[in-house]
Structure to design on (80 residues):
């Protein structure tokens, strides 16, 4: 899975209300999603698994950083 595919999957499963809440957040506040949405992303998308293709796609070796990359990409997609 790539970052783009992860964003597509999140767009399909998040409610309209959740997407609106994220879209309206200032970019600097996305860190507030680390323990909620970020944790769900790390667990559901297997970012802790050795050899994770998604982790590699994020350009980092740390699951926490990778979920941040995905959340930022989701936020940017919601801005469009």
């Amino acid at each position: 899975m790539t970052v783009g595919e992860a964003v597509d999957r999140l767009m399909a499963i998040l409610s309209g209300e959740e997407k609106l809440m994220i879209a309206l957040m200032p970019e600097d506040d996305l860190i507030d999603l680390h323990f909620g949405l970020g944790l769900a992303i790390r667990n559901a998308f297997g970012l802790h698994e050795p050899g994770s293709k998604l982790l590699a796609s994020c350009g980092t070796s740390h699951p926490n950083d990778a979920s941040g990359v995905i959340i930022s990409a989701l936020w940017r997609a919601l801005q469009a």
Observations:
- The first helix runs from residue 3 to 13.
- The chain has one domain: 3-79.
- The chain is about 60% helix and 0% strand.
- The two ends are 22 Å apart (CA to CA).
